[in-house]
Design a protein that fits this description.
single chain; alpha+beta; four-stranded mixed beta sheet; 14 strands; flat
Length: 416
């Protein structure tokens, strides 16, 4: 590109209705894997006003009774923070309904012998914009909602409620490197203590907006990329949404509608698998279309997306390319990937080709469903944590797809 450009990504909090559904589905998955690592799970959840419906196809030796599902849902809702009856969706009053039955034996015919649990294409992505090798906009958007949850649970911003969304716009240089933070959007559910009546309508106070800037937005940006804070954080209010911003200033839109009192599943129905761009790379890298949450690792929608991230991250960690996108495709019941595709967007080191990269991938990574599950140790109850604050870009011991243990071998294979 010959000019600077803007790119935006969003994230959603653990209390967003769709993420509530994701976490319940993955709580059910974790329960099954804890008791029976060979469980086959495809669990979907719907949440709305004081109601959670759990459905799906599950074959397991785990004691997954209706009562167990109800307990898992209520514990998850409580952990998220829906405990105040004013929110019209709480752990102790929510009605939990279960419609779960066994998986089709026709799927098992192919999966039991090591085949993929579904067809489709999956993508992985990595780039050198952050130490986590994630695109900067989605990485910072995740950290904003993660820190939002911390400030809420600690009481440091006691007026916050669980439902929230973040959005980060970064200005990039013509060579694709980040130049500065341009705009931050943070919409958060809140209680009545930070409301006033303005022109006959209820409104979120500017004082609360400033607290969010001072205690959440500013510390998050400083922790991630202080060098990209080229000017002051400027509060943009509903009364003056086009306020003049000084050069380099970072526009901060906080509850730009003016009020966010009604939220969570009471304000918006939530469904498992509806935040697939949030769960992947914020639109920077492609997504194959299949959701992650509620699916056991025989479902390549999840496991192959994880190993594709693992591959891409190790290639970038090995400094074979500044960015890397990997696609894998599978047929249901068939073990080996039908295709492997790699794109480094012109950032690959000299002397290396994408054809050679694909050969290295085949040599150094196990890509059958069985191989992926074993190499990444995916038959463990680790998934509820993935369903909030991002599946990728967090250095947690259980997130084995974030390891860079193949980087040195890839460097050696590339002759570097």
């Amino acid at each position: 590109m010959s000019e600077r450009f803007l790119f935006t990504s969003e994230s959603v909090s653990m209390g967003h209705p769709d993420k509530v559904a994701d976490q319940i589905s993955d709580a059910v998955l974790d329960f099954c894997l804890k008791h029976d690592p060979t469980s086959r799970v495809a669990c979907e959840t719907l949440v709305t006003t004081n109601l959670a419906i759990v459905a799906g196809e599950i074959t397991t030796r785990a004691p997954l009774t209706v009562g167990a599902i109800q307990t898992l849902a209520r514990e998850t809702i409580h952990d998220i923070g829906y405990t105040d009856h004013e929110m019209e969706f709480t752990a102790d009053t929510c009605n939990v309904i279960s419609y779960v039955h066994a998986q089709s034996p026709h799927i098992s015919m192919g999966v039991d012998v090591g085949g993929a649990g579904d067809q489709g294409m999956m993508f992985g992505f990595a780039c050198d914009e952050t130490p986590a090798l994630m695109p900067l906009p989605i990485h910072v958007a995740h950290r904003l909602v993660e820190n939002h949850a911390s400030l809420r649970s600690s009481g440091k911003l006691s007026f916050l409620r669980p439902d929230a969304k973040s959005q980060v716009t970064v200005e990039y240089n013509p060579d694709g490197t980040p130049a500065r933070f341009d705009t931050i959007v943070l919409s958060t559910q809140h209680d009545k203590s930070v409301m006033l009546t303005k022109n006959g309508a209820e409104s979120f106070t500017d004082a609360a907006r400033q607290e969010i800037i001072d205690k959440l937005i500013s510390p998050t940006l400083k922790a991630e990329r202080p060098d990209l804070m080229k000017g002051p954080l400027v509060m943009m209010t509903p009364e003056d949404p086009n306020k003049r911003v000084p050069d380099g200033g970072i526009k901060c839109f906080i509850n730009p509608t003016g009020c966010f009192l009604v939220g969570g599943p009471h304000g918006d129905c939530g469904l498992t698998g509806r935040k697939i761009i949030v769960d992947s790379y914020g639109g920077r890298g492609r997504h194959g279309g299949g959701a992650f949450s509620g699916k056991d690792p025989t479902k390549v929608d999840r496991s192959a997306a994880y190993v594709a991230r693992y591959i891409a991250k190790n290639i970038v960690a090995a400094k074979l390319a500044r960015e890397c996108e990997v696609q894998l495709s599978y047929a249901i019941g068939h073990p080996d990937p039908l295709s492997i595709w790699v794109n480094t967007n012109g950032t690959m080191v000299k002397g290396l080709t994408e054809e050679k990269l694909i050969g290295m991938i085949r040599e150094h990574f196990r890509l059958t469903p069985k191989g992926i599950i074993e190499s990444l140790d995916l038959r463990r109850p680790i998934y509820k944590e993935t369903a909030r604050h991002g599946h990728f870009g967090r250095e947690r011991a259980e997130f084995t797809w974030e390891k860079t243990d193949k980087a040195e071998a890839l460097k050696k294979a590339a002759g570097l």
